[in-house]
Specification:
This protein is α+β, with helices and mostly antiparallel strands. It contains 6 helices and 10 strands; from the N terminus they run αββββββββββααααα. Helix 2 packs across helix 3 and helix 3 packs across helix 5.
């Protein structure tokens, strides 16, 4: 079975039908802990329906699990663990999260093309998208700085990780050990981790985070 089909099969098993409850109102204090993204799709009758994906980044209050919920015109129709794949007319909505927020929330059409869903304007993602629309040069500068912060985190974390792994007896016997040429103070580690985390959060607001962001922090 192709990997893509296998992943979709696993995602289908995670789907749970919704109970029709309304989409909760977005509150200002949820700006960094909640993602709500929407897309409007045409219906066969010529009308249009709005689909909304709601993800609580810190997990549900009942069990702490992070789930995605799909609302159709404000009513809950599906919920799923992550990564999630929700069936919609003409394709599916794929949702995946990283350490610092969503890394994917896209409408994937039947032809394979994809488009990110639009963030709620009151969310941190929505405010970041507004900055990109209104001040594109500043937005590019912020994006460059965030990428540099993640790179700094990688440059500090990866050599230390390599040195630690090389001390494992089986690894040392195969490839030898690796010692850092300089001692990195704890304060530098903390500062680099905080900088990388800040950069990764900014990248997650634009659905740009990857496994490198998790490694850097």
């Amino acid at each position: 079975m192709p990997i893509g089909r296998w992943r979709r099969s696993l995602a289908a098993r995670r789907l749970r039908p919704g109970d029709g409850r309304p989409l909760p109102r977005f509150r200002w204090w949820q700006m960094l802990s909640r993602s709500v993204r929407t897309v409007t799709l045409a219906r066969p009758d010529g009308g249009a329906s709005t689909y909304a994906v709601d993800v609580r980044q810190l997990g549900d209050g009942s069990d702490g699990a992070v789930r995605a919920r799909l609302y159709l015109d404000g009513a809950l129709v599906w919920s799923s663990g992550l990564p999630a794949s929700f069936p919609v007319p003409g394709g599916r909505i794929e949702v995946a999260a990283g350490t610092y927020g969503l890394k994917r929330c896209h409408l994937v059409r039947a032809d394979g093309s994809s488009t990110p869903l639009q963030p709620h304007p009151a969310s941190a993602e929505g405010r970041r998208a507004r900055l990109e629309r209104t001040h594109p040069r500043l937005s590019r500068a912020v994006g460059l700085v965030s990428a540099l912060l993640v790179l700094v985190g990688l440059c500090v974390a990866v050599p230390q990780l390599a040195a630690t792994i090389s001390q494992i007896p089986q690894v040392a016997a195969t490839v030898g050990t690796f010692d850092l040429p300089v001692h990195i103070p704890g304060a530098v580690n903390v500062a680099a981790a905080l900088a990388a985390a800040a950069g990764s959060v900014e990248r997650a607001l634009r659905l740009r985070s990857t496994w490198l962001d998790d490694l850097a922090s």
